[in-house]
Fold this protein.
Amino acid sequence: MKRLMWDEAVKCPDVSVNHLLTSSCFITITLVVMAMVSEFLGQLTLSYGGEKEPKFPTVVPVRDFDPAKDAARIETAIKTKGVDEQTIIDILTRRSYEQRREIAFEYERIAKKDLITALKGALSGSLESLMLGLMKSTVQYDASELKTSMKGLGTDEETLIEIVCSRSNEELVEIKKVYKDMFKKELDKDVAGDTSGDFAKLLLALVQTKRDEPSNVVDYQMIDEDARSLYEAGVKKKGTDVATWISIMSQRSVPHLQKVFDRYKSYSPYDMKESIRKEVKGDLEKSFLTLVECFENRQLYFANRLSDAMKSKGAKEKVVTRIMVSRCEVDLMKIRKEFKKQHKRSLYQTIAEHTKGDYQNALLSLCAGDD
Ligand SMILES: [Ca+2]
């Protein structure tokens, strides 16, 4: 097909010897050149490597977007006696973050007050935290969840582990930047101040974001050496050389580590996750397990965490909200697929079964479909 077009384009000038190229001939040549250029650029992108992870969102920009109309509808919903939560949910869970920002801007112009303050006054409980979460970008939301997990006296280790151990290197780099912008403090200093021992060392190593970029070349020798080092530092010896585990798991690329854990089985009688359970305990154990699960299949990790949180007594709404809000514009569509595959019920059905009221409606809307 392309060959034919090229032949035609080359033949064209013969037809119009003393004339300018006819417009159709000119267009043909232009198209051929454009096709060649785009093919060339395509190859460039392919061989460049290190490109951003593709996204699989459930929440995408709405077409025919009218921020002023949305803002006016929200203002009416807030002023309605008893608050019309459904309208607020329908609008804010079906717009992208950029669009929600435009709505907030228009809202302030129309209502002469800040949308976030207005939402705080109108909503409460889990629905309020979900909606306020949506008013932040994914990165701002992750940064503020981290901040909240370390605020005050105690530390919410569960949240800290979930975010630091599940985010990609690229995501962590962004989170660190935004964290500093928002709170005027370095994330690693806050983490160091709030944790201790090997647990602190592992989190700090991850926050330092020293992980290698995936490489096109598979280094079999290094895969073998890393697998043996992990075994010799743990299952093979009395006690555990945690520093070795930390350095390998915080610095190697994810595709490399996947091959390392596979190779690991030829040295150790237990796979990597069983070895972690045998060697370390508490928050350190949970952190290493989260890391390995995310290296293997990050979306499956989130799917399992959503399932556990919803099935636990008194549904852990904080965990459910955090995952739904932080992943809806990243990879929730893939999480839905993994959820259905693993649990034989869809995420949508599970939300419908384990949550209720306006909060449930908001979650179902973020989920954006049954599987
Ligand atoms: Ca050991």
Summary: The mean pLDDT is 90. Residues 188 and 207 are 6 Å apart (CA to CA). The two ends are 39 Å apart (CA to CA).
